[in-house]
Amino acid sequence: MVKKVTSFDVARRAGVSQPTVSRALRNLPGTSPETRRKVRQAAEDLSYIPSDSARALSTRSTRRIAVVSEELTNPYYPQLVEPLRRLLAERDLRTVVITDSEHRSIGPEVLADGSYDGVVLTTTGRQSRLPRDLTELGVAHVLANRVLDVAECPSCSVDNAGGAEAISELLADLGHCSVASIQGPLTTSTGRERAAALAEGMRRRGVPLRRELTRRTDFSHDAGHRVARELFALPHPPTAVVCGNDVVALGVLSAAREHGLNVPGDVTVIGFDDIPMAGWPLVDLTTVHCDLESLAAAAVDLLLDEIAGHRGDPVTQIVPVSMVLRRTHAPPRA
Predict the structure, then answer these.
(1) Going from the N-terminus, what domains does the chain have, and what CATH number goes with each?
(2) How far apart are CA 242 and CA 322, in angstroms?
(3) The whole model's pTM is what?
(4) Quick check: 312 pLDDT over 90?
(5) Which of 306, 324, 211, 231 lies closest to 270 in space, CA to CA?
C-alpha cells in the first residue's frame, strides 16, 4: 500500500517545520518568499495534496459554501447557481449545491452541522423559519432571489415590482383590455411581488385584471401549459397572457400552439427572468431581463460580510431589471 504524503513529509524535504508548511501553502504572514518557494517545490516534488479536513481543524473553516437551490431541471436555477459558484471559486471557496423541493425540504440540521462556512438560500418562502434557525445556530447566511416578510438576514432580489410595472405599461400602450395573469405561489416573494405590481399597474392604467383571468400556480412549464389551456378554452379568451416566469411562459406558448393560436397575432405572451431559452429564435419571448450576474455578486458580497462577522441590521439589495422586446407581443386583433 502506498503511504500517503503528509505535511510532515513536505516539512522534512523543505527543511522547515510543519506549521511553516501550513502557513506557506496558505500564503499566511510569517513566511518569506524564499520559504514559500521551497515549500511549494517540496509539495510538488512529493505530489502532496493538502487535506481539507485537516485545514478545517486548524482554521475552523471548511472553505465550503452551501447553495440551496431548486432541482436543476428548472432552467432558471443553473443560471443563478453558476455565477455564484464562479464568484465563490474566485475567493477560494467551494460550492456545494443542495436541492430543495416540495418532496424534500431542507432543514437547519443539514446546513448547521459544521460542514459549511456559510449558506446561500435561493428558494426560501416569505415566512420560512429556516433563516431564524440558522441565525440562532450561528450559521452565516443570505437570501438570493427571495426576501422575507420580516427581514431576518441580508437578502438580494431583482426588482420584481419594476419589471411588472414595465409589463403593464407595454400592454396598456399596445391596447390590451383582456389580460390574463398566471403568477407563482403566494408563499414566495417572487410570486407575491410580481402579481401585486402587475395588478396595480394595470389598474392604474384603467385595465383592471379580471378574476376569471387570474391564476396561481407553480413555476413550471406543465403548470403554465395546463392553466393556459383552461384560459384559451374560455368563451372570451384573453388577448394577452402575463407569466410569473419564462418557464411558465414556455408552457403557455405550447398551449397556444395546441389551440391553433398565432403568437402574437392572436395572443400576446410575456415572461419574466430572460433565461437563455427565451432568446432562442424558436421562442423569441418578450420578457423582463434579470441580471443574475449582479444578483450573484450581491449575494456573495453580503455572505462574505456575514462570515467576517460584520452583522448589522438586515439589508435588502434590489437589482434593476429591463424590458426585452422580442416577437411574442403585438396589439390585439381589431
Answers:
(1) 7-59 (1.10.260.40), 64-158+292-320 (3.40.50.2300), 160-290 (3.40.50.2300)
(2) 16
(3) 0.80
(4) no
(5) 324
